[in-house]
Design a protein that fits this description.
By secondary structure, this protein is mainly beta. The chain has two helices and 25 strands. The protein folds into three domains: 101 residues, Immunoglobulins (Immunoglobulin-like, Sandwich), CATH 2.60.40.10; 79 residues, Immunoglobulin-like (Sandwich); 101 residues, Sandwich (Immunoglobulin-like).
């Protein structure tokens, strides 16, 4: 009897132990499932989006290549010692560049640009103070043969090439002309090669300092030009105990309204005989730096030769006012019957076109 009871108790204990183990496994599996589900939810969260940089994807497109494979992302300005080679890179599979016009004007072999697969490379060897200016690049978008600049992916940096012997960016002109207009600011373009140079503006006659705001990337800004600003001025720079004087600037006051050319025409004679010589002059008064293009229509055109020449000069009109006189002269030698008739001069500038005419009659 006791042996039977002992066997029954052992069987009961074995069943209870199996039930507890299965329940523990179910609770463990349930906890692991919940842990896995929670992990999945964390991984499934959408990443936080970054705002698009107007300079391009990932920041500025422009970088400077330093030694030992290091790179420097460029900001608004950069100062580099004159004489030290410069290498710039711009991200993009097709890239356009702009740089100081000085480098194009003299067809500088020191400047080279190479397009790689993922970037464009600009190399400037032995840079000088004259190379100081803005360097820009942008991504070029093409649709077939048509290409255009991507306005959302462009970068620019003003680069100073510091030279202790050249505080001002050199100019090829000893005396530059600056036109003063009453309706817009004027700039005296004495730029420096180091951004923290102290610069002042001075009048030559009567001698004295001129009050104007200065920006090292452009020069002195005269916000409200007046006739009393006219004259010769120069800039004075001081840096680390060194003082230098810039080239001179001739300030001319202009009061000519912008618009199509104001043209007149005049013949040396309007009644002529066969065999006479006649000059017909077309004259335009306009803004000093505004180019004028002349074209002529006349009897016998393309049938016999005539001589046409042009010239322009600055003249003073009134007190302190400067304007430009542009002329085109048509010269006829040994008048013939085919030369009599109407002579028309067309003068054109960027604002429009004006036509004037006169007639040559037989005497």
């Amino acid at each position: 009897m006791k042996l039977w009871l002992l066997v029954a108790l052992l069987l009961l204990w074995s069943q209870l132990e199996n039930g507890l183990c299965q329940d523990f496994r179910r609770r463990k599996d349930s906890n692991e499932s919940r842990g896995k589900l929670i992990g999945k939810r964390v991984k499934g969260r959408p990443p936080k989006l970054k705002e698009r940089d107007p300079q391009g994807r990932g920041g500025t497109l422009l970088t400077q290549v330093l030694d030992k494979g290091r790179f420097l992302r460029l900001g608004d300005s950069l100062t580099v010692p004159a004489g030290k080679d410069l290498e710039l890179r711009c991200k993009g599979s097709r890239v356009g560049w702009t740089y100081p016009t000085y480098l194009d004007r003299f067809n500088e072999s020191r400047l080279s640009i190479k397009q790689q697969d993922k970037f464009s490379q600009l190399m400037l060897t032995s840079p000088s103070a004259a190379d100081t200016g803005e360097y820009s690049c942008w991504v070029v978008l093409c649709d077939g043969a048509e290409c255009e600049k991507d306005p959302d992916r462009t970068s620019s940096t003003y680069i100073y090439f510091a030279d202790k012997d050249e505080l001002f960016v050199p100019s090829m002109v000893y005396t530059e002309i600056v036109y003063l207009r009453p309706d817009r600011p004027a700039v005296v373009p004495c730029r420096v090669t180091t951004p923290h140079t102290r610069v002042t503006l001075h009048r030559e006659v009567p001698p004295g300092e001129v009050s104007a705001s200065y920006k090292p990337t452009s020069g002195f800004l005269i916000t409200d030009p007046m006739p009393e600003h006219m004259g010769v001025v120069y800039c004075k720079a001081t840096a680390k105990g060194t003082m230098q004087i810039s080239n001179k600037y001739q300030l001319l006051y202009v009061e000519v309204p912008s618009g199509p050319p104001f043209a007149t025409i005049e013949a040396s004679a309007t009644s002529v005989r066969g065999g006479d010589n006649v000059n017909i002059t077309c004259t335009v008064l306009g803004e000093p730096e505004l180019d004028v293009d002349f074209t002529w229509t006349y009897p016998g055109q393309d049938q016999r030769p005539v001589d046409i020449y042009g010239a322009w000069r600055l003249i003073a009109r009134g007190v302190g006012h400067t304007t430009r006189i542009s002329q085109s002269v048509l010269m006829l030698e040994d008048m013939e019957t085919i030369d009599f008739g109407r002579y028309t001069c067309r003068a054109k500038n960027r604002h429009g076109e004006t036509s004037v005419a006169t007639r040559l009659e037989p005497l």
